[in-house]
Amino acid sequence: MTALLIDSSNTICRAYYGRAGGDASAVPQVLRDLVWTLQLRFQAEHVIAALDDSRNFRQCLYENYKKQRSPKPADLTELLRQADELMSAAGAIPALAPNHEADDVMGTLARRAPGRVVIVTSDRDLFSAVTATVQVYEPRAKTVITVADVQARFGVSPERIPLFKSLCGDSSDNIPGVRGLGEKAASVMAAQCGSVDEVFDRVSSFERRYQKALQAADPSEIRLFHELATVRTDAPVTRVSLRR
Length: 244
Known about the structure:
The protein is of the alpha/beta class. It has 2 domains: 2-150 and 232-239, 5'-nuclease (Rossmann fold, 3-Layer(aba) Sandwich), CATH 3.40.50; 154-229, Orthogonal Bundle (DNA polymerase, domain 1). Helix content is 44%, strand content 12%. A hairpin with a 4-residue loop joins β5 (134-138) and β6 (143-145). The radius of gyration is 19 Å and the shape is globular.
């Protein structure tokens, strides 16, 4: 049994800017074709479209979360507002978790699923959800990401991705990380340590230039970044009742 979990906002944006060429009226058909193609490719028995709530707990924890993103065109904004209807019409079951993002919906459903799961998104946050039975399909590259792929790309296992991001930052989510640490340093530290606290407890074991960066950082702030970067697996997911 295979469950296909689709990141609705990510997919609608790609459809709008990609095959639809900025024509909002073409997006519904693009979505229908996409869902059908993916369901056929992965032989999925279940297709679920994960939705973003209008407000989420990360914005409450950190007011600058994703604030750097440019405003979307008005017609794309309207498409995203109608994500539940659009994805339902395309053949997927819309699912939402109040006060959470689509990532948390997918992370939670992936944890619950009894069989194979394929998460469809170009957002690397979901790499942390990859396991022996959970894979991520990157639509742009048309590539399936496995545990080995995550390890090869980032130098850490999937469950260490939030720690990796909390250290080096993530510009797409406006998470600064530790000033002076890049991905290489974050990869080494996240591979050796299991938590933010362990990283700061072991400062003296790292290269001197990295020691200085960590000593200048506020551990409580990095713990916050870790929470922001962690995909929830216990979100209160519900099926969406479509608006009429």
